[in-house]
Amino acid sequence: MIETSTFRGFRVVLGALIALAAHALTFIAALMAGRIVGSEAADMRDLGAIVGTLVVGQALVALACLAFGIVLIVRGKRDLGVGLLVGWLLGSIAGWLVIQSG
Question: Does residue 8 sit in helix, strand or coil?
């Protein structure tokens, strides 16, 4: 028999905040990568470092949030798993809007 656990709003918000923090860390890491490479390079290495770090970081965030979110849902911690998935989706949309506005 499958137990039904209570759905706690705090855990949903916690999962969403974890995912949003991971998105924010990838943006910060991308900006730091551009600063480390330096803007004096004429061959646009700084832009390559920013884009590369952002793409790889966001791919890792997507894989981690999707994998852990699904595993948590299957194991019965639906509130935290749903929070991770919602936070990942909101962070992806926000990141896309930030990139499009720039």
Answer: coil
